[in-house]
Amino acid sequence: MKGIEIAKKLNISTSALRHYEAWGLVPYVERAANGYRIYTKEHEAYFQCIRAMYAGFGMDLIREVMPRIIRGEELDALWLINKAQVNLHAEKETVQRTVDMLDLKELNDLPKYRNKNSFTIGEVAAEANVSASAIRHWENEGLIHPERQQVSGFRIYSSSDIRKVLIIRTVQRVVYSLDTVREVLSELDKHNVAQAKEIALKSLQYIDNALVEQVRGISYLQNLLDIVSKKER
């Protein structure tokens, strides 16, 4: 099978096929006497799987999964896929928590959160599913202003700070720009949640679409595993 035939089916360039080959994402490709690559149905299944998984999982994960399948480490590959889906579910829960907080009538009248009045940076990071370094960066950018203990100087975060961190991370993952984040936070200070909620709902929609794409990619992965299994018999 010629590379151009596979490329046309997948609506990509032959150079993309060669990149996947160079990255070790498909098994070794034999060459004819004239130097042309000889692709098999198995190679085609790998290329189809790569393209189908890209939208839902991204190339970084594909570059971890495919070499494992080539080496016969199918279970390791499947656990990586499972971890990605667990992470997507965690992301949905975090964004949904943001939406729920934005639904509160008074932004400055939050109930006691998890039966606590104050939180450490580690606890806030866990609640918002971000790194502590990201929270420190947002503080340096002037997006959040936690209080500090007088004696130790440790940051003290309130439930309002947690909501603000949730909003920042949700908005930034959709629009990326810190200027837009500042604009959203400014509107929140005026008790206007419309912009923040619109972005959060868009994020939920993106996550739902990613789930659909992941399921689609897994169906192609199953087809690839079936072909590899038949070859090994």
Automatic annotation (TrEMBL):
Pfam families according to UniProt: MerR, MerR_1
HTH merR-type domain ranges (all copies): 1-68, 118-187
Keywords: DNA-binding, Repressor, Transcription, Transcription regulation
Keyword Repressor among record annotations: yes
Annotated InterPro entries: DNA-bd_dom_put_sf, MerR-type_HTH_dom, MerR_fam
Descriptive protein name: MerR family transcriptional regulator
Origin species: Cohnella cellulosilytica
